[in-house]
Amino acid sequence: MNYDIELFRAINGLAGRNVSADAVFIFGAKWLIFVMAMLIVAYVAWAWKTSEFEHRVEHAWHITVGFALAFVTERLIGFLWFRPRPFVALPDVVKLIEKSAEEKSFPSGHTTSAFVLAFGLLLHHRKWGAALCVLAAWVSFSRVFVGVHYPTDLLGGVVVAAVAALATRPVAKAIEPYLEFLPVFRKYKQRDA
Fold first, then answer.
1. Distance CA 122, CA 124 (A)
2. Cα–Cα distance between 183 and 162 in angstroms, integer?
3. What average pLDDT does the segment 34-60 reach?
4. How many CB atoms lie within 10 A of CB 120?
5. Nearest-angstrom CA–CA distance, 129 and 126
6. Residue 146 maps to which CATH number?
7. CB-based contacts of 120: which residues, under 8 Å, 6+ apart?
8. Domain of 146?
9. Closest to 105 measured CA to CA, from 144, 160, 163
10. pLDDT for the residue 193
11. What are the φ/ψ torsions at residue 104 (nearest 5 degrees)?
12. How many domains are there within the chain?
């Protein structure tokens, strides 16, 4: 646990020294997760009016179900084992964003959400998924930088995200028969036949 605190101190100690760096990591900690969600939408929309569109909708369903499972899991873990946030437990933490002292620290909800989006897409499309993994790493590092999570909170989030993404992968194929009922998919299947 001392290594966890030491690493937290090393990263958080960089905060508050440079306005531009602070802005980059505040954005990563608060808003980048929404950019990632929009990129998932773009990934699906990019294939509109092509035969690939059906597969990308399947991928999006998988990611959505994986996200839901990861969200519930990380909340349950936080409920069963409440770990106070660093700015509550440690003195002299540089806190750059507002968070309630009553919220749990482990696992990091933002890290879990970011990585379940990234891993979910990585299972279907290597380039898009790899790009989202880079953004997820930015989100995660930012949460330590701004003073609201320990490094092990991030590790917990990554593990929950990976398990959720893998456990829900069959969802993509499970919904395929139901997509046949939507005219847009029938139309492009007939065109490609």
1. 5
2. 34
3. 91
4. 30
5. 5
6. 1.20.144.10
7. 59, 62, 63, 66, 67, 129, 165, 168
8. 2-192
9. 144
10. 46
11. -75, 160
12. 1
For tokens 């590790």, what's the residue? 155
What's the DSSP call for residue 83? -
Regarding predicted confidence, which is higher, 175 or 187? 175
What is the average pLDDT across 52-79?
93
Mention every residue, 6+ apart, whose C-beta is less than 8 A from residue 186.
180
Separation of alpha carbons 53 and 140, rounded Å = 31
* Residue 6 parent element (H or E): helix 2-12
Structure tokens at 117: 């989006």
Q: Do residues 174 and 75 touch, judged by C-beta distance below 8 A?
A: no
Per-residue pLDDT at 32 exceeds 60: yes
C-alpha distance from residue 85 to each of 11, 14, 111, 123 (Å)? 15, 18, 15, 32
User: Residue 111: is its pLDDT beyond 90?
Assistant: yes
d(CA 24, CA 166): 31
Count of residues in the chain: 193
Report the alpha-carbon distance of residue 134 to residue 23 in Å, rounded: 18
Say how many Å lie between the first and final Cα of the chain, rounded.
Answer: 59
